[in-house]
Every structure is written in structure tokens, then in C-alpha cells.
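Hypothesis: this fold can be encoded by more than one sequence.
Test: take the C-alpha cells below, design a sequence, compare later.
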């Protein structure tokens, strides 16, 4: 696979206010991004996502570590490396608020040295693609948040860089605009051959859009895996088992010892076990306990688990046993 970004041993600390202590915001982070993928950078508040994104797009200088963009080391050849990257940060700071939609697009296109005709065609296309044509003469500070977000992404597209970094691209958008932005991002990758790194707290967006996720917590990577692998891995381990009778006290105690997280519910003729295995082979231990008294199994179902639940588990459990 063709690597477009390589981050190696990245570190950044901030000095705490009125203290001699430091916050290790990003603490030895390494990962790669493949050309043409949408990588999700996830983690709880304060995990170090924005700090990582700002270092990759050159807004912050790392304390140590290296960032190689399209084969170019960003410390040695900063401008050359940064040419391949555009970023849309929180708060849409890449827009001029007192200019109109079209003036913003004209301005940023002007930076690229294209002919007037080429610029006109590209801007028309973007206005259409991002459904901003009707608002082209509106000042940015009079646009809704969703429209500003779309314009910010359109401006990032104009730079024609292969990689686009987006910090929380769907934050505060209504459901419809959120879906529109998702479709736009998908088409940017598919039709325009771009690579996207997004940070997001919206796990539905991540499950829907990202090929792979890097999850960080307290400045360190806890998982780096494909979304489908994580879904499969966690799906395999969560079961709901319906029994055609009740467990004896001895069986119940035995199971609780092995699986402290076990949930056991009963009615008069049936009982249900909900279990979340650490390893899929553990299901045989459970069968052994049921076999002790020939307890009849009526059904075994895999519980459905969404990416949000997986994210919570990974962050809670830490790295152990989570990466595939
Ligand atoms: N300019 C700064 N000065 C001091 N500390 C900072 C600064 N910026 C970030 N931090 C600290 O660094 C850590 C990582 O912050 P960062 O903004 O990268 O997290 P994040 O993952 O983007 O969080 P969120 O999900 O809330 O956006 C936090 O503990 C934060 O308080
Ligand atoms: Mg952030």
C-alpha cells in the first residue's frame, strides 16, 4: 500500500499554567496514513487529537519525532512538505469572515497561480458540488454553521493538496447537513483521489466513513486498526444465550467466577445470559458449566455492537487485547 504520511515518535508537551509541570499532550505517537484512505483520529476530550493534527499541518512544532509527507520530511523541507496538506480546524479559521462565499473561493484560488478561466470553472464546480451557489454573494459571518463548514472544506479542496485534515467536521451540524458533509467527504476521496484524516467524536460518522482508526488516549495510541476488523473482533465476543431452564446456584457461582461481567436474568421457565468474552475460545468454558447439569441451550445470538460501544470499551480497557 502506498503511504502518504508517516508520523514517527511524535511528542508535544505544554507547560501547565502557574505550575512547573507539563502536560504530555502527545506522547510518542507513530502511525502511517495510506493514500486514498479516510483515517479517523479518535479519543476522549484532551486525548491529543487537535495537537496531533496541528503538528501534521505545520501549525505546531513537535518537541520530537518526525512527520514525513509524501516522502518529504516536514522538519527539513517544511514548505515543500506542507504543500501536500490542507487543514480545516475547529471554528473554520481558514475562512475570511468579512468576505463573501465567492470572494473567499476567489482569494484562495488566486494563491495557486491558475489561469482565470481554470479558476472560474473550478469555483463553479465547487459551488455546485457543495450546494453553495445560492449563497455565493453572502458574507461568511452570515452563513449557518453547516454552510460555513462546507465552505471551509471547499476552500481546503481548492489548494489541490492530496491530504485534507479535518478536525471535527460534523460538530454542531444538523442531521441532514451532517449526512451531506459525509457524502462530500466520501466523494472527495473517491472522485478527487484525496486522502483524509478526520478527528471526530461522532462514532456513527466514523463507522460510516473511515477505513481505519487510530485511537489515542492521554497522548498515546491505544488502537490502530481497520474499522471492520474492530467491529468483527468485538462482535465475535458478545453473546446473548437463552437457556431452556434456570442455572443452579453452583453453576451461577462458577460462571460469575470466570466471567464477573456476566448478566443473568430469569423468568419462570427461561433464563438469559449476556456475556462479553475477552477471547472467543472462552465460550467453551461457558459450555462446560452448562454441561455440568445438562442445561438446555435454546439459542445463541451474537449481540450487535456499534462503533460507539467499541470505542468506549477500547478506551476503558486500554490497549490490551484490542488490536487485531
Ligand atoms: N495551548 C495549550 N496550552 C496548554 N495546554 C494545552 C494547549 N492545547 C492543548 N493543551 C492540553 O493538551 C492536551 C491535549 O489537547 P488537545 O486539544 O490536543 O485534545 P483533543 O484530543 O483535541 O481534545 P478534544 O476532543 O476536547 O478536542 C489537553 O490536556 C489540553 O488541555
Ligand atoms: Mg480537539
Amino acid at each position: 500500500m502506498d503511504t502518504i504520511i508517516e508520523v514517527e515518535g511524535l511528542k508535544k508537551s505544554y507547560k501547565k499554567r502557574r505550575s512547573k509541570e507539563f502536560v504530555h499532550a502527545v506522547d510518542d505517537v507513530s502511525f502511517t496514513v495510506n493514500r486514498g484512505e479516510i483515517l479517523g483520529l479518535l479519543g476522549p476530550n484532551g486525548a491529543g487529537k487537535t495537537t496531533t493534527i496541528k503538528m501534521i499541518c505545520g501549525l505546531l512544532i513537535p518537541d520530537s519525532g518526525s512527520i514525513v509527507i509524501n516522502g518529504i520530511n516536514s522538519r527539513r523541507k517544511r514548505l515543500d512538505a506542507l504543500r501536500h496538506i490542507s487543514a480545516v480546524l475547529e471554528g473554520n479559521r481558514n475562512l475570511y469572515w468579512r468576505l463573501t462565499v465567492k470572494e473567499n473561493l476567489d482569494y484562495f484560488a488566486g494563491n495557486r497561480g491558475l489561469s482565470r478561466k481554470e479558476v472560474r470553472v473550478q469555483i463553479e464546480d465547487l459551488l455546485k458540488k457543495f450546494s453553495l451557489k445560492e449563497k455565493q454573494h453572502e458574507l461568511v459571518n452570515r452563513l449557518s454553521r453547516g454552510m460555513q463548514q462546507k465552505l471551509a472544506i471547499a476552500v481546503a479542496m481548492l489548494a489541490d493538496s492530496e491530504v485534507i485534515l479535518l478536525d471535527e467536521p460534523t460538530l454542531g451540524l444538523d442531521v441532514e447537513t451532517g449526512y451531506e458533509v459525509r457524502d462530500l467527504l466520501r466523494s472527495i476521496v473517491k472522485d478527487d483521489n484525496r486522502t483524509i484524516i478526520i478527528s471526530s467524536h461522532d462514532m456513527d460518522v466514523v463507522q460510516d466513513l473511515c477505513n481505519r482508526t487510530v485511537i489515542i488516549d492521554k497522548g498515546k495510541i491505544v488502537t490502530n486498526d481497520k474499522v471492520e476488523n474492530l467491529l468483527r473482533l468485538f462482535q465475535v465476543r458478545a453473546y446473548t444465550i437463552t437457556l431452556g431452564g434456570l442455572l443452579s446456584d453452583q453453576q451461577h457461582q462458577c460462571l460469575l467466577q470466570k466471567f464477573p461481567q456476566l448478566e443473568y436474568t430469569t423468568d419462570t421457565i427461561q433464563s438469559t445470559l449476556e456475556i462479553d468474552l475477552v477471547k472467543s475460545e472462552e465460550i467453551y468454558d461457558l459450555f462446560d458449566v452448562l454441561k455440568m447439569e445438562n442445561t438446555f441451550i435454546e439459542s445463541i445470538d451474537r449481540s450487535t455492537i456499534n462503533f460507539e460501544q467499541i470505542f468506549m470499551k477500547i478506551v476503558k480497557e486500554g490497549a490490551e487485547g484490542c488490536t487485531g
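Residues 49-50, 167 surround magnesium ion (ligand 2) (CB under 6 Å). The chain is about 35% helix and 25% strand.
Hypothesis status: open.
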